[in-house]
Each structure stands twice: as structure tokens, then as C-alpha cells.
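ok posting inputs for the shikimate-3-phosphate job
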Amino acid sequence: MHFTLHKTDIAKQSSINITGSKSESNRLLLLQALYPQFLLENISNSDDSNLMTNALISTSNVIDIHHAGTAMRFLTAFFSIQEGREVTLTGSKRMKERPIQILVEALQELGADIAYVENAGYPPIKITGKKITKNKVSLKANVSSQYISALLLIASKLENGLQLTLEGEITSVPYIKMTLSLLEEIGVQTDFFGNVITVKPNKNVLEPKTLVVESDWSSASYYFSLLAISDVGTEITISSYKENSLQGDSVLVDIYKHFGVSSTFSNNQLTLKKEPVRLQPLKLDLKNAPDIAQTIAVTCFALGISCDLTGLHTLKIKETDRLVALKTEIEKLGGEVAITNESLHLSPANTIKENISIATYNDHRMAMAFAPLALKTSLIIEDAAVVSKSYPTFWDDLESIGFKITK
Ligand SMILES: O=C(O)C1=C[C@@H](OP(=O)(O)O)[C@@H](O)[C@H](O)C1
Ligand SMILES: C=C(OP(=O)(O)O)C(=O)O
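and the output
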């Protein structure tokens, strides 16, 4: 369904409660399946986390994880060690184009039994669960950190733990650190030194614990963008957020200072406020925070400033080729964008075309990143329901702060 967002202002002061991080949730759901003594709070209500929850309790031998990248990668590792179980993991048309070979080869080297069902290197894959006793493997670290997190999540259940050697430049490092922090939090011993990560096998009973998921920082990015575009003095409070987050996208606090957005933490609430600012062009390497690239590019476009974003080499294999999608949609609105395989240059724009229909390419972040433009012009967001991949209540939340949406 296409939604029309009418040009609007947002409330001067408002508050929103955002659901738990999908990245933390999908890790903790898998860890809970391995260690049922842990209780989880503020789990994400995203499609991707619901798919993860259902896959972990499914008794079927074919599991479809639709568009959920982390679920696909993490479950590949999980089912590799479910002895005696045979599962085919499949997904959406796009999931069948998202590479998984680096993870499959690492697991096979450790002794796992995995076969490709259609195209070599891509889902669907058929996994026959086995006991894994080997504990040393190397893998390329510059394509997706999800392969590394997948291996780390099962590592403490392997007979001899795991020693991973990461080859090449390491991408999306904060996501690897998030995995290690969550393992430490439940009592698993880990070490990350240079390009080697070690996880000790768990020989003890881990203490039962309730783990509270922090809210999703990638979802918060759309409010940073709204505030950057809004009038000086506009304030929004979002919860529940911590100053010391496990999520790399919390770098938004520093990045959005550039646009005059200040951040104040108090009692797990984060208040964003638009301050006066002299706008400058932006240059940024986003290899540690790829999911906020779309948000930032659209903020810059709305503000009429140029940006040079680099470190975007993973964007081509996400829900869609996000570099091409950004260029196509910003150019429909009258902007000028140049892309390479790993970078995006946006020229300063002085007008934004009205009533343009933005295609979303099955990518939740395309829909959400372009929504803040409604502070500048009316626009249409195609297939607006895509947001449910990570943030199902996104449109309701925008309406609650003053958005006028024809559904
Ligand atoms: O581990 C995770 O939870 C994620 C890692 C990142 O992927 P890459 O490592 O493939 O960049 C990120 O883009 C994705 O949304 C979530
Ligand atoms: C890339 C993303 O998710 P995934 O890789 O888990 O599909 C995302 O949420 O932006």
C-alpha cells in the first residue's frame, strides 16, 4: 500500500517509545535457545525478530526467514550444531541473492554438513546438524560481520570453543563487539586481540539472568533526521536508551551534532533538541554504521548540503542495492548523486520536487529514511508496510507526533 505524507510540521515537544534492538534481540533469542535459563525483556517486535523466534521453535524441516539477514546467517550456524536435525533454510527472492558462502565454508571447514539447494554460495541451504569438534578457522571479514557473529554465537557450545582468524579489513566491527559483549554478559569468556577472536567452550552452568534489550538505535536515526530538518527549539524524547550502548549506530549522537541536534540522556530517556547551527558539508566513513547511511544521505539532501559518504561497500548486498536505490530516489526528487561500489556523493540541492513517489525496493530503511522529507514537501512512500521488517509501528509513531498520512 502506498502512503501519502502531506507536508507538515511536527509537535514542538513529543515522546516516543521505540521497541528493542533487532540486532541485540536476534542474538539473545539464539543464545536463549542454547541457554534456556535466560529471560529476555524489551525484545524487538520487528518481523525479523518474530521470524527468528518462530524459526527457533519450529519443528518443520523447511524454514523460510523471508528478508531477515541476521536470522538467515545466525540460524545457519545454529542448525549446524543441532545433532540429528535436518533443516532447509530459505528466504525471499532477495535473500536468495544475498551471499552466504563465506559463512558456509567456515562452518564446513569446522566439520558442518551444509549443501546448497539452488545456487552455490546462496540460500536456500540444507543443513544436517552435527557435533563439531574442530575449533580453528579463518574467514574473510570485509563482506559481512554477520558471518562472524553467527560463528561466535554458537562458539561456546562447541566441544573445544572457537578461534577465529579474521582476514582483511574488518567491516561493521561494532556488531562483532556487540556479539562478544552479550556473550560476556551471560558468562561466556571471549577475547578479541588483533585479528583473532577466541571464545572458550562453556563447561559450567551459566547463572540464570534477565537480560533487558536496549531500544533500537537504527530506528532512532529517523528521529535524529526529523529533528535535523525541524525548527530550532523542537524537542523529542525517545526511550529506552543508554549513553553507553552496545549498538554502533549510537554514533548518531556525534554525527547529528553536525546538523544542530543535541542529545541529553536522563533515566534511560534520550532527548533530542534542535539547536541553532551553521550548516557545513559532511564527510563520513560509515563502515562501522552502514544502516544509517540512507538516513544521513536524506538528511543532507533535505538540508541542501553536500555529503561524501564512504565505507559503504556492504550496502550493495543488503535488502536491496542501497547505493543504487538512494541515487535513483534522490534524483527523482531533483537531487544529484554519484555512487561507486563503496561511496556516495550528494551535491547540494536547492529545491525538492513535490509529490514524488518514492520506491522502497522491499527495504524498510528506504521507506523510513525518506519519511522526514515530509517536513519540507508532500511525498508518496510506496509499499509503506515494508517498515515492519524492523519497526512495525513507525507510521503510527509519526502520526502521534503530527504527521498527516493518507493511507
Ligand atoms: O549483526 C547485525 O545485527 C547486523 C550487522 C550489519 O550487517 P553487515 O555486517 O552485513 O554490514 C547490519 O547492516 C545489519 O543490519 C545488522
Ligand atoms: C541490513 C539490515 O538487515 P539484515 O542484514 O539483517 O537483513 C538492516 O536492518 O538494515
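notes: The pocket of phosphoenolpyruvate (ligand 2) is lined by residues 67-70, 291, 318-319, 365, 390 (CB under 6 Å). The chain has two domains: 3-19+215-406, 22-212.
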